[in-house]
Q: What sequence folds into this?
């Protein structure tokens, strides 16, 4: 209501955020586990006195910096850009509450980037001990930046005591912070294995390739012993409504959860039977397929994480459509149109009913729905009669638990219902003729 | 009459620090970002033209320098990003209601920054890692990348100026809500942008001089050449930039122009110090580039150049405050400093700097025998 609404036809803002976030997370979490992989593998090479592994690591670390420093860092900035554009109110809240959290995260980001560059550029320059120390600095800084961001991200789902105290620490150390940290840390390690499988499978030396493929597969297998416990802990810590959404409240999300679990198990089984048991038969094509499976699992789990936060963007504080929970009643009595800065239409009456309806849709619904496209409202309301639409709007939050209540006056509700009805009406008339 | 109804309400959560501290950190990190950006962007252009001259004159000196800059570009590009994140954070917390709105108006150009940056950055890596193999294509590789980075600067300036002029927003948004606007009809935009980009060339010139000073020991002829060559890259853009600066000043709304000419003591003070220090800097540079022992004079010139850059950034800040004065009353902005977290941040920042300095020291030290 406060900010202009950025109208993105067909895909909608939510989809755009999801797209950017998934590709970023897939690379950024590798950047963390991959750091641990580099140092531990370097240590292993020295311990076993195997210079071939060092040769491999030089190539792997080049791939690593090219992927993480460029693509990983910039897609991270891209998330920030995108959330500011799509949900400026929520972004502003997160920045105001956690500006010092972000600033601390920035310090770790800075150390991380410097350490990654220095690690890569000093393979032949530094003594072993110092080089490994820089690798550790890299990994610790990278993990600490995850630690900070994880606190802020989980805050959005479970703000916990912050709602009462408004204290930074209550918001940061919130109920899902730790379980989420355990899951994400395990995932970063598994991802390190997935990416290492890919670079290993390109090694020309047969012996080196086989050794590295088997070694990388262990990085995938081990975290899977942690993930089920982390997942369970997480599910037990989320709000009741979120649990209901997973447990069948929104069938699409339940299916996503099932797919996520199913393909995780597939990755585990295949990682055991292929690269671990028969590393010599493993190929780059298979490694690539593994990576794509990983991306898929990451994609569905991030989408579930976003979905279970509904109807809020910051739980019990701000609704998905960027309205403060405390403002809902005000909009119900005073109307949303007069309270909005970025609309021509200041009230809904018979003369401007269609225009007003469209504006109400824009203000209340378009954060999640497009007209035609992703979560498109036209298809969702197809065949609905006007009084039925009105009734649905009236009881939105009861009928669909993951939607915010309608926040607007009687006349605005009527205008919205009319506009929604008219969307499909022309087609219906043609069909009836 | 100014229409203030369009400006979003200030976030109800109080600022978690005193305003002066946030503004100080904004300006400090922005200065560092600008310096890194100048090397990354200006350095790219200098490398491209150095390649071009090298090929024309068949000069080994030029190629040596091009190779030297090639090694610098990826790290400085990385620093440009990391050092850019912090000022963007402090900008959002202080001026979010202006910044988010102008960004939404130009959403697609703004997002395109990411794609352009990824391509340009990979271009720099290709220039750096494949310097030998690229050979004749080096000029194009680095020129295209630098031009892409300079385009990002243009998009940034569009947004940073648009956020200062809320009276334009309404018409823009109602004409088109899809986030495809730019802000080229602002008369200050082009001189403002050119002023930044041209000074990037001058900063890159100073980096060439520093590179030359490092070379003096191992190859005196190359070092001396680079110092003179870099000095010209500093001097010519700086002279041009004085003209562009005047253009910007004249293009400003009259009251803002007069602010720097006695209207506002602080702004005028910054301006005078900036002018005086760039004058001293130019003199020292002229003397230093021809001196038999240039190091002392050039170090002094660098110091005065840095003073100029800082005063320019302070002037830029005063200008922003003047633009936004009708729309924001700082005395009414609530603050509830989170001192505990601020202290942790400060300690981590110091610890982080020590760590990075330690790593750099190690990596630039003597090569070890494995």
A:
């Amino acid at each position: 209501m406060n900010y202009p609404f950025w109208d993105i036809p067909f895909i909608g803002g939510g989809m755009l955020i999801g797209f950017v976030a998934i590709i970023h997370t897939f690379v950024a979490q590798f950047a963390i586990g991959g750091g641990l992989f580099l140092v531990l593998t370097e240590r292993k090479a020295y311990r076993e006195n195997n210079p071939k592994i060092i040769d491999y690591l030089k190539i792997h670390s080049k791939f690593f910096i090219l992927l993480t420093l460029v693509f990983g860092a910039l897609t991270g900035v891209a998330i920030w850009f995108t959330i500011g554009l799509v949900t400026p109110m929520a972004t502003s809240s997160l920045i105001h509450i956690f500006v010092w959290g972000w600033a601390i995260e920035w310090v770790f980001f800075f150390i991380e980037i410097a350490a990654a560059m220095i690690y890569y550029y000093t393979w032949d320059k530094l003594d072993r001990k110092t080089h490994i120390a820089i690798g550790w600095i890299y990994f610790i800084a990278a993990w600490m930046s995850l630690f900070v961001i994880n606190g802020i991200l989980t805050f959005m789902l479970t703000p916990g005591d912050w709602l009462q105290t408004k204290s930074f620490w209550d918001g940061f150390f919130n109920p899902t912070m730790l379980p989420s940290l355990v899951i994400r840390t395990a995932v970063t390690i598994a991802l390190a294995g997935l990416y290492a499988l890919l670079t290993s499978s390109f090694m020309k030396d047969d012996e080196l390739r086989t050794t590295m493929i088997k070694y990388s597969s262990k990085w995938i297998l081990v975290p899977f012993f942690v993930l089920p416990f982390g997942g369970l802990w997480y599910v037990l810590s989320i709000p009741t409504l979120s649990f209901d959404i997973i447990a069948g409240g929104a069938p699409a999300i339940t299916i996503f959860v099932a797919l996520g679990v199913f393909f995780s198990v597939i990755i585990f089984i295949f990682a055991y039977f292929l690269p671990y048991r028969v590393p010599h038969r493993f190929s780059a094509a298979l490694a690539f397929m593994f990576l794509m499976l990983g991306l898929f699992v990451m994609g569905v789990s991030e989408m579930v994480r976003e979905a279970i936060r509904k109807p809020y963007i910051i739980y019990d504080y701000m609704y998905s459509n960027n309205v403060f929970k405390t403002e809902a009643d005000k909009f119900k009595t005073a109307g949303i149109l007069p309270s909005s800065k970025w609309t021509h239409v200041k009230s809904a009456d018979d003369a401007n009913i269609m225009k007003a309806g469209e504006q109400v849709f824009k203000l209340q619904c378009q954060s999640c729905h497009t007209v035609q496209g992703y979560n498109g409202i036209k298809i969702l309301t197809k065949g609905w009669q006007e009084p039925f639409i009105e009734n649905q709007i009236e009881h939105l939050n009861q009928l669909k638990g993951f939607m915010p209540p309608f926040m607007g006056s009687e006349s605005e509700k009527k205008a919205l219902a009319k506009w929604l009805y008219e969307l499909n009406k022309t087609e219906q008339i043609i069909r009836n003729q | 009459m100014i229409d203030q109804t369009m400006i979003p309400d200030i976030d109800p959560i109080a600022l978690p620090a005193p305003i002066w501290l946030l503004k100080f950190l904004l300006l400090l990190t922005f200065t560092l970002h600008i310096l890194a950006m100048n090397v990354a962007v200006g350095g790219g252009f200098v490398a491209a033209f150095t390649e071009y001259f090298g090929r024309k004159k068949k000069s080994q000196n030029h190629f040596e320098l091009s190779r030297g800059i090639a090694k610098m570009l990826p790290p400085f590009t990385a620093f440009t990003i990391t050092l850019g994140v912090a000022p963007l954070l402090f900008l959002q917390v202080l001026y979010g209601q202006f910044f988010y709105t102008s960004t939404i108006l130009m959403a697609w150009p703004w997002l395109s920054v990411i794609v352009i940056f990824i391509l340009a950055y990979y271009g720099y890596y290709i220039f750096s890692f494949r310097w030998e193999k690229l050979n004749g294509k080096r000029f194009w590789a680095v020129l295209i990348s630098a031009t892409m980075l300079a385009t990002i600067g243009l998009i940034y300036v569009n947004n940073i100026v648009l956020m200062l002029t809320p009276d334009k927003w309404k018409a823009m948004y109602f004409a088109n809500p899809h986030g495809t606007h730019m802000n080229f009809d602002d008369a200050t935009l082009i001189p403002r942008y050119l002023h930044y980009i041209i000074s990037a060339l001058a900063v890159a010139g100073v980096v060439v001089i520093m590179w030359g000073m490092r070379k003096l020991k191992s190859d005196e002829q190359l070092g001396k050449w680079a110092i003179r060559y870099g000095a010209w890259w500093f001097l010519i853009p700086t002279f041009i930039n004085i003209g562009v600066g005047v253009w910007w000043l004249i293009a400003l709304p009259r009251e803002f122009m007069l602010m720097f000419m006695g209207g506002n003591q602080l702004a005028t003070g910054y301006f005078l110090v900036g002018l005086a220090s760039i004058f001293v800097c130019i003199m020292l540079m002229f003397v230093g580039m021809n001196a038999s022992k240039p190091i002392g004079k050039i170090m002094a010139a660098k110091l005065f150049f840095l003073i100029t850059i800082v005063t320019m950034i302070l002037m830029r800040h005063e200008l922003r405050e003047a633009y936004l004065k009708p729309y924001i009353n700082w005395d009414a902005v609530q603050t509830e400093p989170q001192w505990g977290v601020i202290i942790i941040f400060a300690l981590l920042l110091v610890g982080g700097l020590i760590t990075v300095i330690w790593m750099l020291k190690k990596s630039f030290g003597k090569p070890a025998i494995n």
About this structure: The first strand of chain A starts at residue 312 and ends at 314.
